[in-house]
C-alpha cells in the first residue's frame, strides 16, 4: 500500500512541478510579446497559432500513446520540454526571433497534450477505485495552489530579472520533474495489449465506446455544455460585471480569481481527508446548487446596482469562494467517475477526445458570451447560461437514472 501511495504522490509532484513551470511561462509570455510588439492583435494571433495545432491533434493523441508505457511517455515529455526551454534560453542570449519562439512554443504545447493524457491514464492505473476521489482532491488542492501563487511569482521574476531567466528556471523545473518521476514504480499491464490494428480502426472503436456507454456518453455531453456555457466566466462574465458594469478597478478584480482559487483549495483539502460524504451520489444536487448560486449572483448584480458598488463587490468575492468550493466538489467526483467507469484500455482515447471537444468549445463559448453580453449585459447572460445548465443537468440525470440505479 505504501508503494502505491508513494507512486501516486510522485506522479502528483511531477505534475505539480510541470504545472508550476508552465504557469510561470504562460503568465510571462504575453507580457514579453507585448513588450516586443506593443500590439495586442499580434499577441492574440501568436497565442491562437501556438494553441491551434495542439487542439487539432488532441483527438488523435490517445490512439497514438495507448499502446506504450505511460511512465515512459511522461518522462520523455518532461525531458523534451526541459530541453526545448533550454534551447530557447541559449537562442535568446544572442538572438530575438518571434517566429522561433512561436515554433518552439507550438511544439511544447503539443508535447504537453501527450503528457496530460498519459499522466491521467497512469493516475488511473496506479490508483484503486477507492482512492481515486481522495487523490483527485489532493491534486485539485495542489494545482489550485499553484494557479494562485504561480502568476505572482512569474510576474515578480519577470519584472526583477528578464525573459531569459524565466526560461532557464522553467527548463530546470521540468528537468526536476523528470528526475523525480524516474522513481515511480510502474510496469505496463500486458493484459491490455491487443493484437495490432490500424490507427483508424482504433480511433473509431474509441468513439463507439463513448457513444455506446450510456453514463459515460451523458456525462461527456454534460461536460461539453459546461465548457460552452460556464468556462467563459473569467474572460467575459466576471470582467463584464465587475469592471464594465460596476467599474471596479483591475487591481481589485484580481481578488475574484483569488477568492475562487481559495475556495477550490479548501474543497480539495476537504475531499482528501473526507471519508464519509459520497460526492458522486450528490453530483446532481451539487451541479444545481452551483448554477443556482451563479444565477443568484447575476440577479444580485441587477438588484444592487443602485447601491454602493463595493457592496456588490464584497458579495461577489464571497460567492466566488463558494462557487470555487462547489465547482471542485463537482469536478473531482466527475473526473473520478470517468477514471472509474472508462476501461483503462480506452482511457487514452477517451481523454484525448474529451480534451479536443473541451478545448474547441471554450473559445466558441467565449465568443457566444461576449456577443450576447454586449447586447443584454453580462449578468443577464450569466443567469441565462446557468438556467440552461440546470435544465441540461435534469435531462442528463433523468436519462441515466435507471442505469445508475442498476
UniProtKB/TrEMBL annotation:
Please state where this protein is localized. Answer: Cell membrane
Primary subcellular site in the record, as a coarse category: membrane
Which SUPFAM superfamilies does the record cross-reference, listed alphabetically? Answer: MFS general substrate transporter (SSF103473)
The record's annotation in Gene3D superfamilies points to: MFS general substrate transporter like domains
Positions of transmembrane segments? 12-33, 45-65, 72-92, 98-115, 141-159, 165-184, 215-232, 252-273, 285-305, 311-338, 350-369, 375-397
Q: Which UniProt keywords apply?
A: Cell membrane, Membrane, Transmembrane, Transmembrane helix, Transport
Which CDD domains does its entry note? Answer: MFS_MefA_like
Keyword Transmembrane helix on this protein?
yes
Tell me the InterPro entries matching this sequence.
MFS (IPR011701), MFS_dom (IPR020846), MFS_trans_sf (IPR036259)
**Does the record's keyword annotation contain Transmembrane?**
yes
User: What does the record say about its membrane topology?
Assistant: Multi-pass membrane protein
Query: For the Major facilitator superfamily (MFS) profile domain, which residue ranges apply?
Result: 1-189
Q: What is this protein called?
A: MFS transporter
Native source species:
Fusobacterium simiae
The organism that produces this protein has a lineage beginning with:
Bacteria, Fusobacteriati, Fusobacteriota, Fusobacteriia, Fusobacteriales
